[in-house]
Amino acid sequence: METSLAPGFLIVASVIGTLIWLLIYRLKKHVPDKIQMANWAKESGFIILSAQRRLFLKGPFWQQGVLFVYRIKVRDYEGHEKAGWLRIEVFFFGPNPDVKWD
Questions:
Q1: Residues 6+ apart with CB under 8 A from 52
Q2: Distance between CA 17 and CA 8 in Å, rounded?
Q3: Can you give the pTM of this predicted structure?
Q4: I need a surface site. Which of 1, 12, 73, 91 has the fewest CB within 10 A?
Q5: In this structure, which long-range contacts are made by residues 81-86, counting pairs with CB atoms below 8 Å and at least 24 apart in sequence?
Q6: Strand order in the sheet with 94-101
Q7: pLDDT digit string (tens) for the chain, length 102 residues
């Protein structure tokens, strides 16, 4: 006795597989968030003194959909220190870092 899968099941399985593949592609295509944070600091003229990833208490970035939020403390090249919140959202076109200072 031979059984065949219903065409509807194959379509649903294909859609789910494609969505999973796109999610994996999106996350792996971009540089890990800590490297992006280091690149942001270097381009902005800062040295990162501390960075704590926040999963729940995301400060001003409380919206859902934000991938990476860090509580950071930095020093500029003149020695001035400041603290704030760094958000790194990853889109298909690359990372989009945003910072809110205290």
A1: 70, 71, 72
A2: 14
A3: 0.63
A4: 1
A5: 81/49, 85/58, 85/59, 85/60, 85/61, 86/37, 86/40, 86/51
A6: 46-53, 68-76, 81-91, 94-101
A7: 455 667 778 888 888 988 888 777 666 555 567 888 888 899 999 999 999 988 788 888 777 565 788 899 999 999 999 999 998 876 655 566 889 999
Question: Could you tell me the two tokens for 62?
Answer: 């409380």
Q: φ, ψ for residue 77 (rounded to 5)?
A: -75, -10
Read off the tokens for 8: 């509807």
- DSSP for the chain reads ------HHHHHHHHHHHHHHHHHHHHHHHSPPHHHHHHHHHHHHTEEEEEEEE-SS--TT--STT--EEEEEEEEETTS-EEEEEEEEEEETTEEEEEEEE-
